[in-house]
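Incident review: delayed structure delivery

Summary: a single-chain prediction request sat in the queue longer than the usual turnaround. Root cause was a stuck worker, restarted by the on-call engineer. No data loss occurred. The affected request and its eventual output are reproduced below so the record is complete for anyone auditing the incident later.

Affected input:
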Amino acid sequence: MRRTAGFRTVVLVTTVFAVIGAGAAARATGGLPVLAGPWAPSQQGYGHMKPRTIFNGGDPTGLVKHIHWKSWGGGRATGTGTGFWVGPKQFVAQGHFEKGATIVLFQLGRCHGQSAYNAIEWYFSHHGQKFSRGDYINACTGKYYTNGHPDL
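Output delivered after worker restart:
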């Protein structure tokens, strides 16, 4: 009888700590946003917080890997990683992976009921590219935008 009572105490204490620990973990994230999505099968990183890999699920131009986030949780999240570079007048088959892709998540809002960054863009500044709020993918729907207008 004594052994059973001790066992119940351990289970109760463990359960209480598990519940308290889960609540603390939820508070530790502070309700931070995720990258919106996914919107299609075979995607990676979408619907997650601080993903190390983001993949649109198509050709390699939609892949950034080994991402190191410099910021997360504010109006804009920024990081750097390795992306697939295709130069001007090149075919995708002529491209290659390069370090130094800058990734920017913005348009903080909601997607699938969660706080999320709804816009995503990446670029290579060492190739003369720069951030443009008008050129992005809506990470919740998958729609592409150029100069702030949806591509047709």
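Verification: Helices lie at 2-29.
Action items: add queue-age alerting; document worker restart procedure.
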